[in-house]
Every structure is written in structure tokens, then in C-alpha cells.
């Protein structure tokens, strides 16, 4: 991690310690995951930033313990990250983590993704909407794409079956107005297990919504 993101190494280490202690005690991280926090979780999430434009606004849907959202906020201070999570015990942990780590470019949003969509009265759209192991791709797209600005990106971290899942979801994506989609392998030469990501370009934004941009 120090070689890939030297400026963020100390705060990433502090986050790893928090996940291994409070995160485990509160049931957000399984005890068996502690020995592989760096390889399977932190590094796995960090390389997602390679697909995100500069100074983008990012919503992490169903962030849980803050993966990938907190990692993205730490390695990319130019981003503005919203950590979207409906469960109180998780948002309590997330707020403590954001405060402890000094993540001034991250905010905790207690909500379900579908409640933030324009169809439910939401008025904010994002440059990037990310998720990690939240739901099947077709269902996930129904939550995430309506939150993307026109031309924005939905980034879904997936496993080895990403290609098959994408093929099975193409009808759903077309119905949601997606323009194009791809499967990426990130960190192939750096990680023991590369990160598989499905990227989907959103179509026209819903009327009545405002594109959320980072203030300058």
C-alpha cells in the first residue's frame, strides 16, 4: 500500500486497525477477514479510484463498514464521497471512522439508495455511483443508475462471474437507459487477486434533479 498510495498510507493503516478492532466487535467485519484486510479489502478497493475522474462526486451505495467509500476518500482527496447506508449501527461506526480519520471529503448519509432517486423525490445526482457486493447487477443498476448524472458512471465491484452477470443484465441496463458497459480488471500486475469492476455509463438524467458537483 505504501508503494501505491504513500500519502495515504498512515490513515489507511489507522482505518485497517479500526476495522480489525471496532469493526469486528460490531459485526461489520468477520474475524476471518482480519488477516486479509489489506489484500482482500483495502487494496482491492483502492484501485477502483483508477476509473474515477478528477474532482468527482461519488456515492458509495450500501457502504457497510466504508468499503470502498472510505478508502476512496483517503486515497483521492480530490473526491467528495457520500457513504450511503441505511442501518443505524453501521452509520454510527461510519461517522466515528470519518471523524477519527479526518475524512473531510466524506459524509455519511443514512438512507436506502432507492429513497434517494428522483422517483422518490431525490434532487442530487453524482458523477460516480459505486458499490461492492451489494446485490445482483440488474437489481443494483435499478438503484444506482438513477443516481448518476447523464454520462456519469456506475461502478460495481464484482467477482469472477462478472461477465456472465453482465450478459444476463443487459436487458435491464438498456431499459434503464445505460449507454455502454465494460468489465475491467484492475491491479493485475500489483494485486494477488485483481479487482473486477463492471462500469456502466448512465444515460439522460431524470428531470428535476440537480447534478451534484464538488464546490471549488
Kindly describe this structure.
The protein is an alpha/beta fold and 216 residues long. It is globular, with a radius of gyration of 16 Å. α5 crosses α6. It is built from six helices and eight strands; from the N terminus they run ααβαβαββαβαβββ. Strands 1, 2, 3, 4, 5, 6, 7 and 8 form an eight-stranded mixed β-sheet that branches. It has helices spanning 9-25, 37-46, 69-75, 88-101, 137-144, 162-175, and strands at 57-61, 80-84, 106-109, 124-132, 148-158, 180-186, 195-201, 210-211.
Main sheet characteristics: 8 strands, mixed
Morphology: globular
* Class from secondary-structure proportions: alpha/beta
Distance between the termini: 29 Å
The helicity comes to 25-40%
Number of helices: 6
The string of secondary-structure elements, in order, is HHEHEHEEHEHEEE
Low-confidence stretches: 205-216
Percent of residues in beta strands? 15-25%
Query: How would you state the average pLDDT, rounded?
Result: 90
Backbone CA Rg:
16 Å
Number of E strands: 8
